[in-house]
Structures are given as C-alpha cells and as structure tokens.
Amino acid sequence: MKAEQVIPILRIFDYRKTVEFYVDWLGFEIVWEHSFEENTPVYMEVKKNNITLHLSEHHGD
Q1: CA angle, corner 46, sides to 19 and 32, nearest 5?
Q2: For 23, which DSSP code?
Q3: pLDDT given for residue 1 in this prediction
Q4: Which tens digit of pLDDT belongs to each residue from 13-47?
Q5: Domain residue ranges in the chain
Q6: Which stretch of DSSP H or E encloses residue 15?
Q7: What is the 3-state secondary structure (H, E, C) of 1-61?
Q8: May I ask which residue range the UniProt record assigns to the signal sequence (predicted)?
Q9: Are 16 and 24 in contact (CB under 8 A)?
Q10: What is the distance between the alpha carbons of residues 26 and 53, in angstroms, rounded to a whole number?
C-alpha cells in the first residue's frame, strides 16, 4: 500500500494565536473550519502550496 498524502493533526490551544501564527506569520490559508456550536473546540484545515495540516482544539479523543 502506498500513501498518496499524509495530513498531520496538530493540537492547538488558542484559536486567535493559531491564526496569527499559521496564517499571518507562515502564510497558510484556512481551507475550512468546523465547530459543533459557538464556544466549542475548533477543527480546521490550513494549506500552503502542497503542505496541508489539520489543527484541532479537541483533546482526549
């Protein structure tokens, strides 16, 4: 079996600081975000060129 793409999931702790770092500083773009309700953990995908990362505020899953 050959993996076509690997997408790491990285834990985040502060949404605002995450956007500041990944988007404003490193130049990633937010592809999508998901949250079940307002004020619940965010799960998001960011992308820059051929690098895709998933960023999650969820813990203990």
Answers
A1: 95
A2: I
A3: 86
A4: 999 999 999 999 999 999 999 999 998 999 999 99
A5: 1-44
A6: helix 15-19
A7: CCCCCCCCEEECCCHHHHHHHHHHHCCCEEEEEECCCCCCCCEEEEEECCEEEEEECCCCC
A8: none
A9: no
A10: 12
* Burial status of residue 52 (CB atoms within 10 A of its CB: 0-12, 13-18, 19 or more): middle
Which secondary-structure segment (H or E) carries 43? strand 43-48
Closest CA to 57 of 4, 12, 17: 12
In angstroms, the CA 46 to CA 30 distance is 4
Is the CB of residue 32 less than 8 Å from the CB of residue 44? yes
The Cα 24–Cα 33 span in angstroms is 17
Scan for tokens 């500083």, then name that residue: 25
Task: Say how many C-beta atoms besides its own lie within 10 A of residue 46's C-beta.
Answer: 22
